[in-house]
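Students often ask why we bother encoding 3D structure as a string. The short answer is that it lets us treat folding as translation between two languages. Here is a chain of 243 residues written in the first language.
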Amino acid sequence: MTTKTTQDAAVEPGPVSAPGAARRRVSWAFVALASIAVAAFLVSQYANGDLKSQAEGGVGLAPHYLTLPPVLQAAFYLHIGLGGVALALGPLQFSQRFRNRFRRAHRMIGRIYLVSVALGGTAALVLSPTNQAGLVGFFGFGSLAVLWLFTAWRAYRAIRTGDVRSHQAWMIRNFALTFAAVTLRLWMGVFITGQLSFGHDIDFGVAFDNAYVTVPFLCWLPNIIVAELLVRRRGLPAFRITG
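And here it is in the second language, the structure alphabet:
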């Protein structure tokens, strides 16, 4: 796969109609609110007490990670904390009004975002062999971590060379992967609710485990497809298959 040429990248998208602009604002507001809500939930969930007390209370993935070595527990907290930072800051980078009015703040937040992705993604890659979803999780979450790091690097390299439009395209792809933290929980809610509603004598723990093995790919593959559609729709440098 390759990106389009610089000449293709310079093509500006057509004017956006008033209904189109309104849809963009509504979409941005939804993504921003969902991202901030999930980021706050994640950080607060694991910030209350140590891992042992969280495991005893059945908090999220704490029971699983309590059994792992301290270095992996540290990687878990690093992934949760910095992933939460990236998730909360990401939507602000796509606000054109903020970007135009506060360019210096946009650059500073962008640096914090990319550093958070770099460290959080590395921690996710370290954790992937020991994830709770087994082999499916190793390939699903491992692929997500690799792509998360790769798209962040491409976004950084593009802006360092002054290729703003390629930078925008890679940032859209990267945040789509960051947003997997939101879509994972949406899918988990759907699958857990479905099992508890239609299953017979299924407790929450079993429903959670069943749902968790379905999301390692589902939480990010649709996101990256939507991101590529957005990239193409905005006339930014897009992927295309070449010989």
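Translate back mentally: The mean pLDDT is 88. Keep this in mind for the problem set.
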